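Structure ticket #2291
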Amino acid sequence: MKKRGILVCAILFFVCVAGGIGYVTLCNQNSRLPQEPDGPPVRPEPEESVVVSTGVTSMGMAEIELDLDFLETELVVEEVYVSSSDQVTKGMKILKITDNSLEEALRELERAKMDASLAYRQGVITYETECLEAENTRKKSRIASEYAQTVYEDTIAKAEAEVAKAQREATQAQELEEEYTTALEDGFYETEYEVEEKKAAYEKNVALFFEKLDAYGYELDDDGDDDPNTFEIVKKGKGSGGGNPDNDGETTVLQLLKNEYQENKEEYDQALKDCEAATEKARAGIAQARDQVQASLLNLQEAQISLEKTRVSAQADYDESIIHGEKAQAVYETKVKSLRETLDGLADAQEEAEERYEQLVEVLGDGFIKAESDGTILMIRAREHTTLAVDGVLLAYSDGEQIQVTASVDQADIARIAVGDVGAIAVEGYDTCTGVVVQIDPVSASEGRASVSYNVILEPEDSSLPANLSATVVFKMTGEEYDRKYGAWKKGEEE
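Resolution: structure written out below.
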């Protein structure tokens, strides 16, 4: 008899649940079916870029869905405060879970959190330890290849240094030859020592001296000496030893001019001497540089040949050693990757355990499940003193704060519409607004095959629209675009 009573209760519960689900389905179908228009529809002429349809406004439906199927503890319903067709307000208590079952569930998830945390911390230790061991193994395996790398680089570096040295010497010798040659061709040394300038200054002062000498009526007395620099300044016809005290000023000027051109002559002679010496040195430098260029080019050729031979030999030794190193690297990377994946899995498990605990606290922290908005109960999957269904929809109720528009779209146009598309919603007497497609029923809403259509549900941006009003929906167009093209309908007016 006891078993029979339990069986009867189970059947009654199943019937109640099935009846509730059927009621919800019927309500949804009735709410989504377009109704006869209350007035003239705002229906523009069809265009290729848009899809035009008629629809009806309706209240949305809210659901409370539990996702606690990870619980092993059974949550027991202590009390249910509502039933189908009851009116609820936001925050109203729907049902209560027994304190014992809730506490046991929390303890279960607390233990899971602790176990996951301990496993992760142990995983960190294991990860770090085994990574160090793998690193040491890799270092030991690669020591030969690393040494080979050093040997290869040193060998090549020395050979390249010899090439570079020979190249520098050849370049320097060429540059020196070019420098000397350019200096000679451009008259650099004449310019450097100011030969022409000093010559011109000497000649100018000599001319000025003799000009003044003649103007003052003086001449040079050679006094038997062939050196003009030792000639004395005398009055014409006076001969040696002649000086006129009345003309001491003139002789002083003439003597200064003589001293000046004599200094100029010395400077000119020295500049000419220095220039000739530099020129001879440059010619000798050119010859020496040319010999050095030939020797450096020969050394460069020999160094390049040696470099290529060294490169081939060193490369062969290096390649052989590096193969062993690469194998060690591959083994290391595989090991570390495996350790990392294991540790990441433990971290994910820890995070999941924490999230599950927080989820349970969020959903059933005080032991009550509450309505999330105002509405009318359509279905509830819970009975007192029974186990709570922890997955799927627990409660469904109409939501007066949500307005939906269900449009009937012809089969020929349904492929052009996707979830997320916008559509202009025009209701007579209300401002045109924009809606977003949130659902497309995969099953045809038509009863016959002559005309096949599908229900498309939109959520309008204007939540103040009443339910059960006829609407025209123009997909692929916003409310602003609709108003600009067709003109907005106003209350009590017809387009």
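Closing remark: The longest helix spans residues 248-364.
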